[in-house]
Design goal:
CATH topology: Rossmann fold
Strand content: 15-25%
CATH class: Alpha Beta
Shape: globular
Oligomer: single chain
Number of helices: 6
Helix content: 25-40%
Number of strands: 6
Number of domains: 1
CATH superfamily: Alpha/Beta hydrolase fold, catalytic domain
Order of helices and strands: EHEHEHEHHEEH
Structural class: alpha/beta
Length: 232
């Protein structure tokens, strides 16, 4: 009986599934493994659903969705920025449930710990300042008030979601492979703290840098995709 494998991506705050399709295609083309980019509730094809605003509830919902609709014998999980927290918690819960998580990729995140912010700081002004720091204001929302409001609602909810983050599942066994990826010009990455990821139990650990900023992924999907294939 053949082994069913799936590679699942978890996007960044404000991210939509389609942004990761090119990277997913590179991996699927070169490995033959089915890839899936998880679309969070409240955006994209799920925009009519209530957005996730509580982290533990979100993880429970995501796990139920994966187990019901994307069952596999072996999983590979990739999270970028906020998605790294989601991927990590999903991986721990999967392993505790006896599922095989072959490789966990965490990207664009300094460490597995999260420092909460004052909820009063989660406002449009600070969110726009954050987006400008990362040079990540989508072109399609510039000058289009309706799209801007929709996008701001999405990313505001994601900040609320992040601010509710607490460890959902204690790690019960080592990660088989834990790969940390980041852009060398990322304004929020603190390289001296990246080693904190190694404090999580693992059988294989590596930290790899790429040229580019927080969103180094986009524009070099071919190189990154081939590297990912080599770690699988």
């Amino acid at each position: 009986m053949s082994c069913i494998e799936k590679f699942i991506f978890f996007p960044h705050a404000g991210g939509l599934a389609y942004s990761y399709y090119k990277l997913a295609h590179v991996i699927e083309k070169n490995t033959g493994i089915s890839t899936f980019v998880y679309e969070y509730a409240g955006r994209g094809e799920r925009q009519k659903e209530a957005a996730f605003t509580d982290f533990k509830t979100a993880i429970e919902s995501i796990l139920q969705d994966i187990f019901e609709n994307y069952p596999a014998d072996k999983y590979y999980l990739f999270g970028h920025s906020m998605g790294s927290y989601i991927a990590m918690e999903v991986a721990k819960s999967m392993m505790d449930d006896g599922k095989n998580v072959s490789t966990l990729f965490v990207s664009g995140l300094t460490s597995p710990s999260y420092e909460k912010v004052d909820s009063k700081e989660i406002n449009d002004e600070n969110i726009m300042r954050y987006l400008k720091m990362f040079n990540s204001i989508p072109d399609e929302i510039v000058g289009k008030e309706s799209l801007r409001k929709m996008y701001m609602n999405i990313i505001r909810n994601d900040f609320v979601l992040l601010n509710s983050y607490t460890e959902c599942q204690k790690q019960t066994e080592p990660f088989k492979k834990l790969i940390v990826l980041y852009g060398m010009e990322d304004p929020v990455i603190k390289e001296e703290k990246l080693e904190e990821w190694a404090e999580l139990e693992n059988e294989y650990f590596d930290i790899v840098s790429y040229s580019g900023d927080h969103f180094y992924i986009f524009g070099q999907e071919d190189e990154l995709g081939m590297d990912i294939c080599g770690w699988m």
